[in-house]
Design a protein that fits this description.
The chain is α/β, with parallel strands linked by helices. It has 20 helices and 14 strands. It folds into two domains: 155 residues, Rossmann fold; 260 residues, no CATH class.
């Protein structure tokens, strides 16, 4: 069978799926006539492919000719990892589908084909609208900009937000009385904090099946996006390090080295850092540095560790499995990442001059703008601790307000001198997070 015949079959198959897939819209807006190559990256199973299906169907509804739109998944077993499958793609489309001068090319897992970046650059020069997606480290912003000569716009896809989870479950509460609405939202939020936001997991009804699916995701990400992608030789050591990190609030290479040594495991600090970098490249784990204008402080203090999805973390980590507070903080961190603009904004944790810790300080153009504390329970000693840290940080950053996100029913405002502390119910934060992060 000729290459063009194979490509014709593959193109026809995947176009039919993209045109007819049942799509629940996500809260991402992909540009319809991009001036750059749109790169859709993120953790495996977060919904990148369905975002391309969503774009396909939106283009059709907006009047774009279907013979101008081509979605191809290069993980199709009929497509071999040979450059000829790329060089013959446009000629096959021209011969058997379309004579449109400009095409919409939605290319899933294109990085599996040799010389893909050179081919993409050439198609960009010809004026085609290009969208690529995948979980590979090559599509991360710091790498892809170099590979594709800075001609890219990267969109990172996360598992479902809480608002998207409600949309996927077809839950509508806007018109309900406030107490009834709050009660319903809290019920679904507890489920969200327990099982997370991976789309397939959200749509499962059985809690046991949710846990099994999350554990399957953990294995798939670990083997395909860490071990295989980064050519990890010691798989057992990698899995041990990964599970220790999922159990940990903070990371320090020296501390992890000593932990492994106490377990009788021989390795080096360089190996630990190499494996940690490979794990982060899979989008499974993130780290936040302490905020300081001194690079020495940022390097010296331990990093805080967060997982892409609190459900995934709780399905693997015994330390997190029973902790609502840790799950809430993890979920708030990922929600902050969803909302900030990575080109101008960033998130750190902070310790005041007296050593009081603030969970999140959000910066815009390197200047602190928003302070956020997260606590599940609000006992009197907890209130005192959280307010004390927040007030000292406000004083040091010359800010006049800060937020405490907690498991409470109603929003409260406490004025302390010239400062205001806003107590935000956790359900309210996840429904209106952008308002509190801006």
């Amino acid at each position: 069978m000729s290459i063009r015949n194979i490509l014709e079959d593959v193109i026809s198959f995947w176009r039919s799926i993209a045109f007819n897939a049942k799509v629940i819209p996500r809260m991402y807006n992909l540009p319809k006539k991009p001036r750059e190559i749109v790169v859709i990256s993120g953790v495996r199973r977060a919904g990148k492919t369905y975002l391309l299906f969503q774009l396909t169907q939106h283009l059709l509804k907006s009047g774009v000719d279907e013979n101008q739109i081509f979605y191809v998944n290069f993980e199709d077993e009929r497509v071999l990892p040979q450059t000829v499958f790329l060089t013959e793609l446009i000629p096959t489309i021209r011969e058997r589908f379309s004579q449109h001068a400009k095409l919409y090319l939605l290319l899933d897992e294109i990085h599996k084909i040799p010389n893909w970046s050179a081919w993409l650059n050439r198609q960009f020069e010809k004026g085609h609208f290009l969208y690529i997606s995948g979980s590979t480290t090559d599509l991360q912003p710091n790498k892809i900009a170099k590979i594709l000569r800075g001609r890219t716009k990267t969109i990172t896809v996360y598992p479902l937000s809480f608002k998207e989870t409600l949309l996927f479950k077809d839950i509508k509460t806007e018109d309900l009385p406030i107490e009834e609405r709050r009660s319903i939202l809290m019920g679904y939020l507890h489920e969200y904090l327990r099982y997370g936001g991976f789309p397939e997991v959200v749509l499962l009804d059985n809690s046991g099946e949710k846990i099994i699916k999350l554990q399957e995701y953990f294995r798939a990400i670990m083997y395909r996006d860490v071990i295989e992608a980064s050519n990890i030789e010691n798989e057992t050591l990698l899995e041990i390090i990964l599970k220790i990190l999922l159990d940990s609030t903070y990371f320090g290479s020296a501390k992890l080295y000593n932990t492994l040594k106490s377990m009788g495991i021989k390795t080096s600090k360089n190996t630990i850092l190499t494996y940690k970098k490979a794990i982060e490249s899979s989008y499974m784990l993130f780290q936040t540095e302490i905020f300081s204008y001194k690079i020495k402080d940022r390097m010296q203090y331990p990093k805080k560790v967060y997982c892409i999805d609190q459900g995934l973390r709780r399905a693997i980590s015994l330390a997190y499995a029973k902790s609502e507070s840790k799950a809430l903080e993890n979920a708030v961190f990922i929600e902050i990442l969803r909302q900030i603009n990575p080109t101008t904004e960033s998130v750190f944790y902070y310790r005041t001059r007296r050593g009081y810790e603030v969970d999140f300080v959000i910066l815009k153009n390197y200047k602190p703008k928003t302070l956020v504390q997260v606590t599940y329970e609000l006992e009197q000693n907890v209130i005192k601790r959280e307010e004390r840290a927040l007030l000292k940080a406000m004083e040091e950053f010359q800010l006049n307000k800060g937020y405490i996100i907690a498991n409470i029913d109603h929003k409260q405002i406490k004025t302390i001198g010239a400062k205001k502390v806003y107590y935000i119910p956790m359900w309210e934060f996840f429904i209106n997070s952008k308002k509190y992060i801006e």
